[in-house]
Amino acid sequence: MTDCGCDKAKAELEEYLHNELAKDDAADIAEHIATCRDCSGEAHVGEVLTHAVQRACKETAPEDLRAQVLLKIREVQATH
Q1: Is the pLDDT assigned to residue 2 strictly greater than 80?
Q2: 11-50 burial, b if ≥16 CB within 10 A, otherwise e?
Q3: In this structure, are residues 43 and 14 in contact, taking their beta carbons and an 8 Å threshold?
Q4: Contact by Cβ (8 Å): 29, 13
Q5: What is the pLDDT of residues 12-59, one digit of tens each?
Q6: If you ran DSSP here, which 8-state letter would residue 11 be given?
C-alpha cells in the first residue's frame, strides 16, 4: 500500500472512525495514521469524542430530573 497522505487521512477521518470506508481506503488511512504523528493525534481526539458521544447517547436522565423538566414544560404550555 502507498501512503495516502495527510489531506486524504484528515478528509476521511470521521468515516474511518465510524467504519464507513471501503476496506482498502480504511487500510490506507490506518497505515498513514500509524506513521504520521499529526494525523495520529487527530485520530486519537476523534476516537475519544466518538466514544464520549456514544456513551452519552446511552445514558438517561434521572427520574427526578425528568419529572422536573416535564413539569416546567407543562407550566410553559399552560401559559401559551
Answers
A1: no
A2: ebbeebbeeebeeeeeebbeebbeebeebeebbeebeeee
A3: no
A4: yes
A5: 999 999 999 999 999 999 999 999 999 999 999 999 999 999 888 888
A6: H
Contact 28, 1 (CB under 8 A): yes
Place of cell 458521544: 53
Question: Would you tell me the crossing angle of helices 23-35 and 37-58 to the nearest 10 degrees?
Answer: 120
pTM for the model stands at: 0.64
Strand, coil or helix: 80: coil
SS3 52: helix
- Among 6, 15, 4, 12, smallest CA distance to 38 is for 6
The boundaries of the domain holding residue 56 are 5-78
Q: How many domains does the chain have?
A: 1
Which amino acid belongs to residue 60?
T
